[in-house]
Backbone:
């Protein structure tokens, strides 16, 4: 280590990072792993392959995925409008976007549940006109997750859109590209990595979300019961081992999915010369 | 006429960027739009391209009225000051872009596109970089790629917005030469915007001088330099010394060889149109203050106190050798002789 580094402060910053990660992330998570060692593998498999647990996993990951896709789409449009156009009340909308960050998620859940329940304002309207029920169904979970995850997409895409060199669009137009071609071939590929980050953040948030979901979901086993709720239920029954087994599985799946998204992102960046 | 502009005006809010511009550019010329910053030259170029809409006026390219057409329909090539290469595409894909976005019916096959792209990259001598990304290239290379990309759609006119503005001095010099040669080879009517008079004189076959949204003069570099239409052009193109005719200065003007004309009040004299000699009589009021080496030329600063008490600086340029022969030192008194002057009102 006689070689001197250009950036000073390598040792203190790395030490701090490792310390912080250990204290806040690794130690709590490793207790989770150790706790689950109290079970033998057969017990573990039994808990995990229980029909109700599998259904809950399907609901949790399915709704989180759906919500992340929809949030990415609409979040992109919101970010686009906020960066591309000037209109009165723009600052107000800017502030509005961050509101779900600050709002206790339970409040959001209760409000959404009130509106979307079959006798609620929107719920009644959808029921009578489209024969659709959102509240107390998986669709309700998706609605709640979109609500809390849209800011993640908006706030990751917005700075990239803001910095986007509009001369590139002009250059593409001057070369004969139509507006649609300019969007699909020039703007979107430049924004895509950021959009993917936004997608990953909303997905991760959606998988772990508890507060807002339980009010609107109806929590029907096999239909609209999410994994976090199942964990709480197990805890309330003093089934510590069962809870940790489910939690650990969820952790591993989430980690793998996020890793996959990261690899995809790496690949996209590499292909477009950003690495 | 390859490009014909009639009556172009443009306002940005209260600010009038262009007033009633009329301009004709014959086929195959390489034209410089020259002017100080804020004179409207870039706006004019963007209006020709269709990136900006004129408030009124008409634009004809090769005889066709293109005023209301979108930029993508005008058949122009545009090169930006900061290149505007597509960051997420390789050099090859950048150049091929214009051919690939063509309508299916007229789009060449991928093999033809590849062949033409490589040919264009050969033309700008950068084919060996075809699979790099723009961020991996130098400024000069990027600008040449941007040019190849614009040429790929076979534009009827090529428009370049300060094409060398973002490059350092030595690269700029090379690229100027190169652009002139390339134009010679391709002969596509081209307009480039610049605020650098030297660049305009060196590269262009025609120079259009703009100031405050109006065309001051249009002509070949020699015409513009030798016969400036007005004070602005004379001052903007090259160095000039300004002599203002007043009651008290008439005698001095006669003495130094300025032929006084009846109607005109201001004489502009190029630094190389002045001869100097060591003064024999010691009460000549002109003193040699300092000089600088400009390579082959020497620039000499002379001072004189005018009859109205104000000091006046006069710049003279002459070849190195000639200056050595004069054997002048700082503080020496000198005599002036003016060979040639332009008079303006």
Residues:
């Amino acid at each position: 280590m006689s070689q001197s580094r250009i950036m000073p402060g390598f040792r203190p910053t790395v030490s701090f990072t490792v310390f912080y990660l250990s204290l806040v992330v690794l130690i709590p998570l490793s207790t989770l792993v150790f706790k689950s060692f109290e079970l033998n593998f057969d017990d573990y498999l039994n808990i995990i392959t229980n029909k109700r647990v599998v259904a809950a996993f399907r609901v949790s990951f399915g709704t989180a995925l759906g919500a992340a896709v929809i949030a990415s789409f609409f979040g992109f449009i919101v970010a686009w409008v906020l960066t591309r156009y000037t209109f009165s009340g723009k600052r107000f909308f800017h502030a509005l976007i961050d509101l779900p960050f600050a709002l206790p998620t339970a409040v959001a859940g209760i409000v959404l549940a009130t509106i979307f329940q079959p006798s609620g304002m929107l719920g009644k309207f959808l029921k009578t006109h489209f024969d659709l029920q959102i509240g107390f169904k998986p669709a309700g979970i998706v609605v709640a997750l979109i609500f809390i995850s849209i800011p993640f997409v908006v706030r990751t895409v917005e700075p990239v859109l803001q910095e986007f060199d509009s001369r590139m669009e002009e250059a593409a137009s001057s070369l004969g590209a139509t507006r649609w071609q300019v969007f699909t071939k020039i703007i979107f590929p430049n924004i895509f990595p950021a959009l993917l980050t936004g997608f990953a953040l909303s997905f991760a948030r959606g998988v772990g979300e508890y507060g807002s979901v339980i009010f609107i979901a109806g929590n029907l086993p096999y239909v609209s019961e999410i994994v976090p709720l199942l964990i709480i239920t197990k805890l309330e029954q003093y089934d510590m081992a069962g809870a940790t087994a489910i939690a650990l599985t969820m952790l591993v799946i989430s980690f793998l999915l996020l890793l996959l998204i990261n690899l995809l992102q790496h690949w996209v960046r590499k292909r477009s010369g950003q690495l | 006429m390859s490009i014909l502009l009639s009556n172009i005006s443009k306002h940005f809010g209260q600010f009038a960027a262009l007033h009633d511009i009329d301009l004709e550019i014959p086929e195959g010329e390489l034209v410089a739009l020259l002017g100080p910053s804020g004179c409207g030259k870039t706006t004019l170029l963007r209006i020709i391209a269709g990136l900006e809409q004129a408030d009124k006026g008409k634009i004809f390219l090769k005889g066709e009225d293109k005023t209301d057409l979108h930029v993508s329909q005008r058949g122009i090539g545009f090169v930006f000051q900061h290149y505007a290469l597509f960051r997420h595409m390789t050099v090859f894909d950048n150049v091929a872009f214009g051919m690939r976005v063509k309508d299916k019916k007229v789009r060449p096959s991928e093999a033809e596109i590849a062949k033409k792209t490589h040919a264009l990259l050969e033309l700008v001598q950068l084919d060996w970089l075809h699979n790099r990304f723009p961020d991996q290239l130098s400024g000069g290379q990027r600008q040449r790629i941007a040019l190849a990309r614009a040429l790929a759609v076979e534009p009827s006119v090529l428009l370049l917005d300060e094409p060398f503005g973002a490059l350092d001095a030595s690269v700029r010099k090379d690229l100027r030469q190169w652009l002139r040669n390339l134009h010679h080879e391709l002969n596509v009517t081209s307009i480039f915007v610049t605020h650098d008079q030297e660049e305009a004189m060196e590269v262009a076959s025609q120079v259009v001088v703009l100031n405050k949204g109006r065309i001051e003069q249009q002509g070949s570099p020699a015409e513009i330099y030798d016969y400036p239409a007005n004070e602005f052009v004379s001052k903007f193109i090259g160095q000039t010394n300004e002599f203002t005719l007043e009651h008290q200065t008439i005698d001095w003007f006669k003495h130094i060889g300025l032929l006084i004309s009846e109607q005109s009040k201001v004489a502009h004299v190029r630094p190389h149109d002045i001869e100097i000699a060591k003064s024999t009589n010691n009460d000549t009021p002109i003193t040699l203050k300092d000089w600088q080496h400009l390579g082959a030329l020497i620039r000499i600063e002379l001072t004189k106190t005018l009859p109205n008490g104000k000091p006046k600086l006069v710049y003279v340029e002459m070849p190195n050798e000639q200056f050595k022969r004069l054997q002048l030192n700082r503080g020496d008194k000198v005599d002036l002789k003016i060979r040639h002057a332009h008079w303006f009102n």
Q: What stands out?
A: The mean pLDDT of chain A is 89. Chain A has twelve helices and no strands.
